[in-house]
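If I may wish for something, please walk me through the protein I am sending here so I can picture the backbone:
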Amino acid sequence: MEVATEQVSQLGYALEQILSQMQNLAKTLPEYQTIRQMGCMGEKLCVRFIADIGDVRRFHNGKALVAYAGIDAPPYQSGQYTGTKRRISKRGNSALRKTGYEVMKSLKSHPRVYDFIIKKENEGKSKKQAKIAGLNKFLQIYYARVMEIYKNIV
């Protein structure tokens, strides 16, 4: 039992060291300050979010980032039939979806997206559906702001 406790303690220390290194690296990225200024994430969540997305410049637009996250609804058509009740595709990065959902739970400090979530709830969407729609909007805003920074750098 003592050996297991020691191993868990060492693992916790190693994780803290890795997170500290990730934070130091993230602070050197141009998008770090942008996302911190959006006001909805703490340092640890911000670092996870940036790490899950990677280099945002590899996406050609905001919709591609949303598709990478796997929260886009794929079209459902067969012949003359067009489906209207679609679910998210879940084709993308599951870690980004999880981190993004955590971001949506703490989004009250970003009024534009928070108001959008409330609007979707008032339209009859469930809380989870509204948060996913809010994450979609948040990713689009994030993409636009970060790409603006990279355009000014180059």
In short: The chain has a mean pLDDT of 85.
